[in-house]
Amino acid sequence: MNQMLIRKIWTRHICLVVFSTLLAACASVNKSPGSDLNAMVNQFQHDIRWRYYESATAAVDSSLAPAFQRWLDRAKEKLNVVDWEIRQIEYKETKKVAIITAIIQYYWLPSTVLEEKTVSQVWKLCGTRWLLYRQFGDHWCFTDCEEDPKVKNSIGARNGRSLIEEL
Fold first, then answer.
1. Distance of CA 130 to the CA centre of its chain
2. Which has the least CB within 10 A, 23, 49, 68, 165?
3. Buried b vs exposed e over 62-91: b needs ≥16 C-beta within 10 Å?
4. d(CA 139, CA 119)
5. Which of the pair, 139 or 37, is modelled with greater confidence?
6. Distance between CA atoms of 24 and 128, rounded to whole angstroms?
7. Torsions phi, psi for 105 (to 5 deg)
8. Are strands 79-92 and 97-108 parallel, antiparallel or unpaired?
9. Residue 91 — pLDDT band, cuts 50, 70, 90?
10. How far apart are alpha carbons 157 and 137 in whole angstroms?
11. Would you say the C-alpha torsion 32, 52, 42, 23 has a positive or negative sign?
12. pTM summary value
């Protein structure tokens, strides 16, 4: 009789573990990669900080890819990111756009002076995936700021906010 009781308990435990595993698997299937803005931004920042540039490129909108590649060509051997902290996320649901404000601590060789800059990023939801659409801030500008009249003639060249109205 004790053996039957033990079997019932083990059977219930095994069923519970199997059910929990299936439930967790179903929850992860419904979530598409890149649908979470915070996760995408953090992954992009991680990739830039640790020089995983190929992985970072996957988070960049195709319209920004040529400017981003030129930035990478300048930054590859010179940029050393010490810290990257998200300060604000402003989401515009009707336009499926978000503005990320971050504080970046870095040094740009040959200088070894630690600099701290505020950087603004504009992210767009493309289908189920967030992609970096624009980025502004000194060494951090991933747009052709001088060539793009929308950017050059707007406050967006400084902080990205007015660019949202034009999207």
1. 8
2. 23
3. eebeebbeebbeebeeebebeebeeeeeee
4. 10
5. 37
6. 21
7. -105, 130
8. antiparallel
9. confident
10. 8
11. positive
12. 0.68
Tokens of 61: 């909108």
What tokens were used for 22? 């299936």
Tokens of 46: 């991680």
146 is written with which tokens? 């001088």
Could you tell me the two tokens for 71?
């930035």
Tokens representing residue 7 in the block: 């079997």
